[in-house]
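Hello Y.,

Per our agreement to keep a running log of every chain we model this quarter, I'm adding this entry. I've kept the format consistent with earlier entries: sequence first, then predicted structure.
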Amino acid sequence: MSGPLLDYVLGLADDALISAQRMGWWISRSPQLEEDVAMANIGLDQLGQARSLLAYAGEVEGDGRSEDCLAYLRDEREFRNVKLVERDQRDFGVAMARLLIFSAWQSELYAGLVRSTDPTLAGVAGKAVKEVAYHLDHARHWVVRLGDGTEESHARMQAALDAEWPWMEELFDGSTVDAGLVADGVAVDPAGLRDGVLTRVEAVVAEATLTVPQVSAAVGGGRRGLHTEEMGYLLAEMQHLARSHPEAAW
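Predicted structure for the entry above:
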């Protein structure tokens, strides 16, 4: 079974799940010990959001697939996350620029979804909106620290922001959400989040003495299952154990 609500819930779930996977890569690789803990906690928050949403997606689908099945046994074309979260982020500046954009978007999204007429989505949003407020503040701290730091840190933070900025546009693509869900108060119109997100992000960019990038938007398609090359490698790592031992339990 598929439908507008399932697609919407899977999109939000996959955004959080794939971002959590990328954040987890930083554990033991962060620039300082406390940052290992912070990145792990942020990733766990996102994983918790993903679990709740994937469990709900399984209920909506009605085919008996659990959150684990949806996370580990779907192929690349079945994932509905935006391309922003799936790309490699082994540069710390890139990780913080992405977290700034993504958490600003999630802050606006969940602030809207707490009023959803769907009680499950409203419940998930009520908890998540508090979590992403911390994520946004954490990203702001590092973007300002690096942007308004040394000449080298400033240049690298600007380069990171320039690299991530083109992928932001897909977050606001209203064509990916069924108009009926928005009209019924179930979903939030992505296009309506643009001003709030840009206000949040551009305030941090100014505080960090950085420049808002003037770049063309990257090609989207993640909500339709069209992903970057890096998505396949990410899924191969994330899904390897579950696919190798499908009946395992622990």
